[in-house]
Amino acid sequence: MSPTEPPAHPSATAERPPIQDIAALRLSGELGWRAAVQAVTAQIPAGQVLSYGDVAAILGAPRAARQVGYALAALSPIEAERLPWWRVLRGDGSIALQGDPERGPIQAARLRADGVVVQDYRVSMAERRWTPGRPA
After folding, report:
1. Domains of the chain: total
2. Domain that holds residue 61
3. 53-67, pLDDT tens digit by residue?
């Protein structure tokens, strides 16, 4: 690592907990909410997506979709470069366009780079929703 290179994000260097263990780690206090959201998001394979509600349900808090969005919106620029936040969408497959006006086009471009078809800022959840434990 060069002196100008930023330190690696914990999810990039630490061994990721298995997806099925993240909720228990969060509920036991071993992982905070943001870390748990990041741990799930880090494991979404390229070409697949989850909704904010899907992430919340994996974390054992199915009604906390909005809090998942807040956690991802609070990523630092370094975290946002290392974590595939663009793979988390609204439940209907649409990209949330409120807030930063540049985020929606960036998210659509990154999804397309992953091989995901994006039409009118929407992805087919039926085709692209990731099911943890099932090969992508």
Report:
1. 1
2. 17-128
3. 999 999 999 999 999
